[in-house]
Specification:
This protein has one helix and twelve strands; from the N terminus they run αββββββββββββ. Helix content is about 5%, strand content about 45%. It starts with 9 loop residues before the first helix and ends in an 8-residue tail after the last strand. A hairpin with a 5-residue loop joins strand 1 and strand 2. The protein is mainly beta.
């Protein structure tokens, strides 16, 4: 069972973890169908500076979490045009550049996706329009497009988020 300590603005984030089952790992599978596995692990550094991974049983402000998503094709034919989407839960921010594969799309609303980095138009004092980057903190979803997943093939995706502190600030 997932053990969580809820503090301040983490409530929404932890609720998403519980609902999605991501902290413990969720597997959806039936013979002859597409199998998916979503996991959430805590990323820490050893005293020697090496990254270590552990099951995300608790999440506190400042923690670095990695979402891992895998799809395995259990059908009898290649799967084409698969869109693999993960939410960036409330109470967390996407860590820019952490998505693997690195060719990824993002969205601030879950409806419109575009390649990372997201850009938006901003009107300048002189009336001209300039494209500026959308801060990664505003990303709410990431999506990978898989052209084709062969029979018995597996595709892996991952992205990292940082847990925010009270008031939505990064500790």
């Amino acid at each position: 069972m997932l053990k969580l300590r809820v503090r301040g603005s983490l409530l929404a984030f932890l609720t998403v973890l519980l609902i999605s089952g991501a902290a413990a790992g969720v597997r959806a599978e039936k013979p002859g169908e597409l199998e998916s596995l979503l996991q959430c692990v805590k990323v820490e550094r050893s005293p020697a500076g090496k990254e270590t991974f552990s099951e995300a049983r608790e999440a506190f402000p400042g923690d670095l979490l990695e979402y891992r998503l895998a799809f395995t094709n259990r059908t009898s034919a290649a799967v084409k045009g698969l869109l693999a989407t993960i939410p960036i839960p409330p109470g967390t921010v996407y860590v820019a550049g952490s998505a693997t594969p690195s060719v990824v799309q993002a969205s601030v609303d879950g409806q419109v996706f575009a390649p990372v980095p997201l850009m938006k138009e901003q009107k300048q004092p002189d009336g001209t329009i300039k494209k500026i980057p959308v801060p990664p903190e505003d990303y709410r979803f990431l999506r990978w497009k898989l052209a084709q997943l062969e029979v018995s093939g597996t595709s892996h995706m991952a992205a990292r988020v940082r847990v925010l502190g009270p008031g939505g600030r990064t500790p």
